[in-house]
Specification:
Blueprint (H helix, E strand, L loop, with lengths): L1 H27 L2 H27 L10 H25 L1 H22 L11 H19 L1
Helix pairs in contact: 1-2, 1-3, 1-4, 2-3, 3-4, 4-5
Keywords: Membrane, Transmembrane, Transmembrane helix
Organism: Daeguia caeni
InterPro entries: YdcZ
């Protein structure tokens, strides 16, 4: 149950982040600059948390050199999401952006689960999962267009 609540809290953070970043873009006059500042501030916060964690646990993470695209892919996908939400939020509203984003996440998640992408546990697309996804997509479209 706590993991479910943690997931809901994470989604709430994303919903709150979108209008904040959109306001930052208006203030700066550039959605790209706002996205860059959002990522930079997040990176600084994570560096501080990582340093505190290493100090508290007394251990440093073991660094292995992963494939080069690992360094780029997550950040590039994050940039696409944050920049898109900054551009869309003032145009279609935060609820529509979040609904459509969650629908996209769910559809991609079903595919990721189905093929076991990047070592994710393989889960079949059952009738219940397919209906749940369809309901979420329909809900997102209703929020956007009705």
């Amino acid at each position: 149950m706590q993991w479910t609540l943690f997931g809901i809290l994470s989604g709430a953070c994303i919903a709150i982040q979108a209008p904040i970043n959109a306001a930052l873009a208006r203030a700066l006059g550039s959605p790209i600059t706002a996205a860059a500042i959002s990522f930079l501030s997040g990176a600084v916060i994570l560096i501080i948390i990582a340093a505190i964690s290493a100090k508290v646990t007394g251990t440093m993470p073991a660094f292995h050199v992963p494939p080069a695209w690992f360094f780029i892919a997550g950040g590039a996908l994050g940039c696409a999401y944050v920049t898109t939400s900054i551009l869309l939020t003032p145009r279609i509203g935060a609820a529509a952006v979040m609904g459509l984003a969650v629908a996209g996440q769910l559809l991609a998640g079903l595919l990721i689960d189905r093929i076991g992408f990047m070592g994710v546990v393989v889960r079949e697309i059952t009738a219940g999962r397919a209906v749940g996804a369809m309901l979420l997509v329909i809900g997102a479209l209703m929020i956007r267009f009705l």
